[in-house]
Amino acid sequence: xxxxxIECPRDAMQGWSTFIPTAxxxxxxxxxxLVGFDTIDFGSFVSPKAIPQMADTVEVLKHLxxxxxxxxxxxxxxxxxxxAVQFDEINFLGFPFSISETFQQRNTNxxxxxxxxxxxxxxxxxxxxxxxxxxxxxxGFGNPYGDPYSAxxxxxxxxxxxxxxxxxxxxxxxxGVSTPSNIKDIFSxxxxxxxxxxxxxxxxxxxxxxxxxxxxxxxHDCFRFDGALNGIGGxxxxxxxxxxxxxxxxxxxxxxxxxxxxxxxxxxxxxxILMAQRIFV
Length: 281
Description:
This protein is an alpha/beta fold. Helices cover 42% and strands 16% of the residues. It has one domain: Aldolase class I (TIM Barrel, Alpha-Beta Barrel), CATH 3.20.20. An eight-stranded parallel barrel has the order 1-2-3-4-5-6-7-8, surrounded by five helices. The radius of gyration is 17 Å and the shape is globular.
């Protein structure tokens, strides 16, 4: 099974405290496009009032030099999806679907029931415009808000959403509560019950606990991983101290130790790492 690495500069940038100039975003994402990642999560069509850092997504998109890597844009409602599907360069739309009622309200200003209606409309748009919808099951490993949580609840929502024709789900540890044990529980259950679907892991983690999370997911048949160079990022809507994304360097290091050829351009990767160090200061 091939490993799919999803590089997430959008997730790295969206909560950054100072505005990253548009020219820097363009240069950085163009550099990432040379590395050979499966997909670049490059921008979002979320209201600039909510995520001002991503207000220039359309301008950035106009100046990207496309490669074999695919592009994913995050949306939070039908209006954002209507805008995003107009661009041929975008392959995937990503929607954060929280199984925590509290967090769904914080993240998209809507209830879970309302979000399900939005997903139905967004999936129809994706089918019409030849895009694929990626559902992020946020709070997929638990939540700090006291809302009901179990792996079974996550499975029930995946089953319901899959009936809409959605086939890619990224299980998201929005606030860094995943452990090797609950990672094992959810991925082994998902893969056993839905072998025809594609499951990914979007972990937020400290560097110290990242490798054990990667290993647990991989050992239980997760082959799609989101990361961000230097482990930058986190969800600004969580309203907690941000826990960064899994560092892409750690993902690469782990899989190379397993003898897996990721097919990456190492020179372009090194240049991307240096560029990230200059941008995120």
